[in-house]
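Morning - zinc ion inputs below, output right after.
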Amino acid sequence: MRVLLLSDIHSNLEALYAVLGAAPPHDLVWNLGDVVGYGADPNEVIDRVRGLGPIFVRGNHDKACSGVEGLERFNPIAARAAQWTHDSLTSGNLEWLRQLPAGPVMPEGSDVTCSHGSPLDEDEYLITVRDAWLPLSQSPARINFFGHTHVQGGFATNGEEWFQLKPQFSASGADDYELPLRENARYLINPGSVGQPRDGDWRAAFAVYEIEDGMRRIMFYRVPYDVKQAQGKILAAGLPDRLATRLSEGR
Ligand code: ZN
């Protein structure tokens, strides 16, 4: 079984199309939240992902843009984008965003969790090994997928040592990285952000979770996309300039 893991698309249609075009054949799609916010194509992105399913969890931007939650916790740039997104969304897409479930969600037939932030708190950022210690220890599942930080990789422990996982893409231009999952370890895995990476690599990020003959592995991917077009749409929409410039910096 192969599952395509998507997170933090953030209304970036160009990045989403590049990812769907580059993804290997898969059986399911699990979406870890923040479908909208920041980018200029919220309706087009929702229209494209709605049918992908079956698993979605809501992100903090999905909540803010649909009015499930206020904008108090957002910085001024994020708040402006959330308000713009709210005003741009069709009523059907607003309704779809509002019904997205809070994580963690355990997909039927699986033994893993899907969350936006942490499996213990949907809004928590897991940035360091220290942040990951509690959720890795207390999550009911051994393998946990999350997003929210826009940093591809994750964390693992064998109960004695704790590791940060960071995919290494070779200088030769290879754009995938394989992580075999060990039977005796616990994991938090972040596929990275499709539409607004913040780990210094501007290319759209995604991952595939594969179970084959009882062996499990993650493949991390990066794929280039038409960043100029995404930036042009952000500027043309009157969204804050910074939301365009940061796309080519991967920050
Ligand atoms: Zn996000």
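Note: The chain has a mean pLDDT of 96.

O.
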